[in-house]
Amino acid sequence: MNESIVRLTQTRDLPDGELLALISGPEWEADLAQAADAQRRKWYGTDVYVRGLIEFTNYCKNDCYYCGIRKSNGKADRYRLTEEQILGCCRQGWTLGFRTFVLQGGEDPWYTDERICRIVRAIKGEFPACAVTLSIGEKERESYAAYRAAGADRYLLRHETASDDHYQMLHPASLSLKHRKNCLFTLKELGYQVGSGFMVGSPGQRPEHLLADLRFLQRLQPAMIGIGPYITHPDTPFHDRPSGDLHLTLRMVSILRLMFPYALLPATTALGTIHPRGRELGLQAGANVVMPNLSPVGVREKYSLYENKICTGEEAAECRSCLESRVRLAGYEIVTARGDVKEDIHD
Ligand code: 5AD
Ligand code: FES
Known about the structure:
globular
């Protein structure tokens, strides 16, 4: 076993140069995955947590250059789910064994704080034992506080890239990394279990940017870290930029498991999109969460952040059982539990 990997496992940290070598070195992929899998088993056994993902609006006021639902994409067929439709997804999800519902959408002002709070209260009222995760972008502290008071438990907001120059390359001038980071720290202060993360292989990304992502996450100490490859979308300014690399993504998943052994790390849909067994490989590289789609089949194609997204034609139950067997074949077990983050225990 590579000596840096042993030390990373023991101390959860390495000097910049050694981390960069692991990030950049294809030769370490198998060793990293082996060490990461051992660490995941120590903390979580073979448990894999499921989160039911409800993509409730693809309207977005932002214009991120990489994203298929950016406001300038006139070809996007826009939709919003009603409160009753969202609750319908949750009811179906509950029956299928989901105990976490993730409400994800573009930054859509139609869903005022009042509406979001109503939806959260309705879900928690009907399913008090579930966890509600919001993934609706950058908001004011007061809004985050209101959602929390309404019952939201968790919040996902990827930082996307922790380097200013790179952030500006990926986003229009109206968006800033500073504001996004502030949002993340505010969410933590408000008592959310916070998820952050980044895309791997986004245009202009270099290994130094990935290193900066790891350093930022060390400061933030999130409960959840979602990463996936950047995938080209034809109707964006980055239509001619190549998608991110499977192997680099897998190495990053393993490095994250070793640096944040207690974290909840999803094997993402993007990973499953760039390779037919991408999510299984993600689990074997250290991931311990999967997020099947609970959105109504009629809208799934429309929530097109990137090209060829998987699971858009499946019913919720099919997706659930498909994932169940994929997870089992990979050597793990889906569990029906809220799947809260484990308290960090230093050993
Ligand atoms: N490829 C991969 N991931 C993307 N996301 C948005 N656009 C793309 C793309 N083209 C990711 C972002 C965002 C999450 C919801 O989806 O990281 O935070
Ligand atoms: Fe959705 Fe396989 S996980 S169909």
